[in-house]
Amino acid sequence: MATDSHIAPLTSAAVDQLGGRLRIAMSVDDLRLLDQYRREFREDYETVVAVVRDQLGLVPSGRPAKSTAAILDKLKRSTMRLSQMQDVAGCRVVVSDVRAQDDAVGRLTTLLSATTVFDRRDKPSHGYRAVHVVARPRGRPIEIQVRTELQHSWAELSEKWADSFGVAVKYGGGPKEIRTMLDGVSDLVANFEGVNWGAELADEVAKLHKGIAAHLAEYIDIAKGQS
């Protein structure tokens, strides 16, 4: 659904006032305003998706706008103002390895205007590693998550364990044994991807990559069984 052309976009002040009210209580009028705000991201989102798909040749997945429930949850567990939330809308791309990741990030920052890069590989967020590019092609921030295959598998594993043991798993909480396992696997992926393997070791690297991916897949199957 496109943003109604006769409705003026919400100002940053109005957005922040809305976010403040939503932290305390939800009214029908405020939920309607939040829905309006969510729709204001569609044109920016479609611009970003077109660049990712048509100029980078990658397959984006994502959503034109974060769900109402997800926005409310993020507001309540943080002090962030609603206008500062950079992932109201966004997409994700998964590439083979860190070289492809660096290439994709470089091309995105060239092709899209007003981009900011958040590299979460060396300083992960509770084990989560990726590179996020935030672009503002028409003014609204659109987050592009660029993950390697192994980083993506780890993120899927974290999501599955969060389904079983609560959303706190994604933010450094949850059972100690699950937290230890997630952190350990995250470090394993980072250590493997951080080595500048020579071209002569390509076959061995491919085997190691396949082995780590297989272990992650096993963990994900176990986590699904616990859901």
What's the arrangement of secondary structure elements?
Blueprint: H1 12-24, H2 28-39, H3 42-55, E1 61-63, H4 68-76, E2 90-95, H5 98-111, E3 116-119, E4 131-135, E5 142-148, H6 149-165, H7 176-193, H8 202-226
Parallel strand pairs: 2-5
Antiparallel strand pairs: 1-2, 3-4, 4-5
Please describe what this structure looks like.
The chain has 227 residues and is α+β, with helices and mostly antiparallel strands. The chain has a domain at 150-226. 54% of the residues lie in helices and 11% in strands. The chain has helices at 12-24, 28-39, 42-55, 68-76, 98-111, 149-165, 176-193, 202-226, and strands at 61-63, 90-95, 116-119, 131-135, 142-148. The protein has a five-stranded mixed beta sheet with strand order 1-2-5-4-3. A hairpin with a 6-residue loop joins strand 4 and strand 5 (142-148). Helix 6 runs antiparallel to helix 7 and helix 6 packs parallel to helix 8 (202-226). The longest helix has 25 residues, at 202-226. The two termini are 34 Å apart. The model has no long low-confidence stretch (mean pLDDT 91).
Question: What's the number of extended β-strand segments?
Answer: 5
State the low-pLDDT regions, or none: none
Tally of separate helices: 8
Strand order of the largest sheet: 1-2-5-4-3
* Secondary structure: helix percent: 40-55%
Roughly what is the average pLDDT, rounded to an integer? 91
Shape: globular
Summarize the helix and strand pattern as letters. Answer: HHHEHEHEEEHHH
Q: Assign the structural class, choosing from mainly alpha, mainly beta, alpha/beta, alpha+beta, or little secondary structure.
A: alpha+beta
Radius of gyration: 19 Å
Distance between the termini: 34 Å
